[in-house]
Amino acid sequence: MVDFDLTGKVAVVTGGSRGLGRAICLAFADSGATVVVASRKGDACVALADHITQTTGRPAVGVDCHVGRWNDCDRLVRRVTDELGGIDVLVNNAGMSPVYPSLGAVTEELFDKVMAVNLKGPFRLSCLIGEQMERRGGGSIVNISSIAAVEPRPVEVPYAAAKAGLNNLTMALARAFGPTVRVNAIMAGPFLTDVTRSWDMAAFDEAARTSIPLRRGGRPEEIVGAALYFASDASSFTTGAVLKVDGGTAYSAG
């Protein structure tokens, strides 16, 4: 469908070298976008960018960027603007949720890192790129949130608080940057990405049969439809939305 076409668009995807970010990068390139793969591991970003170009024929760029650092966010925006002329789509996908033994054992360093990567970085990038999009006449910002924002568990309290903030940021920036720039969020449930290597999959599968209506975790490519919808003109009358893509796991609305 022509509405989902991203030809001529420059799309920046943070946390783009693996997991959901990788799937989004590949899908955007297939839809015609010039993709900028950004994450802390620059080599992995360059490798994926090269793979995208080889398999799709689309230009792609890999850039190292720690979104939890203000200066890295600024550097990413400057480089992409200088090399590609501007940014049409931003996907704030980078995230982290370190394991901790107890709430009392959460250190200030851990708390600050979780807030920086999951909330501070998306704020800085969205503000810089959103203002640029306004000057250029339009654009789309897509935040990858989590159902932890509405159904937090004791094992992910700082992460859940940051994602709740990201949902709030989505709605606030939709108002701030309207009518030219759209800002939406995907509230993801349990996806079976590389992070699940540390999971007890037998226990997860057993729990999924009773706690997830679709009775399984998601596959990375199953985030793609929502990401393409928000990034493209298909969602031209949608902003400030928080869409659950979670197999029905969370009962609360975004």
Short note summarizing the structure:
With 254 residues, this protein is an alpha/beta fold. It has helices spanning 19-30, 42-56, 70-84, 108-136, 157-177, 201-211, 224-231, and strands at 10-14, 34-39, 60-64, 89-92, 139-146, 181-188, 242-245.
Q: What can you tell me about this protein's structure?
A:
Helix 3 (70-84) runs parallel beside helix 4. The chain has one domain: 3-Layer(aba) Sandwich (Rossmann fold). The chain has helices spanning 19-30, 42-56, 70-84, 108-136, 157-177, 201-211, 224-231, and strands at 10-14, 34-39, 60-64, 89-92, 139-146, 181-188, 242-245. 44% of the residues lie in helices and 16% in strands. The protein is an alpha/beta fold and 254 residues long. It has seven helices and seven strands; from the N terminus they run E-H-E-H-E-H-E-H-E-H-E-H-H-E. The longest helix is centred in the middle third of the chain and has 29 residues, at 108-136. Strand 4 (89-92), helix 4 (108-136) and strand 5 (139-146) form a beta-alpha-beta unit.
Spell out the blueprint of helices and strands.
Blueprint: E1 10-14, H1 19-30, E2 34-39, H2 42-56, E3 60-64, H3 70-84, E4 89-92, H4 108-136, E5 139-146, H5 157-177, E6 181-188, H6 201-211, H7 224-231, E7 242-245
Parallel strand pairs: 1-2, 1-4, 2-3, 4-5, 5-6, 6-7
Helix pairs in contact: 3-4, 4-5
Entry keywords:
7 helices; 7 strands; 7-stranded parallel beta sheet; alpha/beta; 254 residues; Rossmann fold
- Spatial strand arrangement across the major sheet: 3-2-1-4-5-6-7
Report the β-strand fraction as a percent range: 15-25%
Please summarize the sheet with the most strands: 7 strands, parallel
List the secondary-structure elements in sequence, H or E. Answer: EHEHEHEHEHEHHE
CATH topology: Rossmann fold
Q: What CATH first level would be assigned?
A: Alpha Beta
Would you identify the CATH architecture?
3-Layer(aba) Sandwich
Estimated helix fraction: 40-55%
Instruction: Quickly give the structural class.
Output: alpha/beta
**Residue-averaged pLDDT:** 93
Radius of gyration, in angstroms, nearest whole number: 17 Å
DSSP summary, beta strand count:
7
Q: Report the total helices.
A: 7
Q: How would you describe the shape?
A: globular
N/C terminus separation: 28 Å
- Low-pLDDT runs of 5+ residues are none
Number of domains as seen in the coordinates? 1
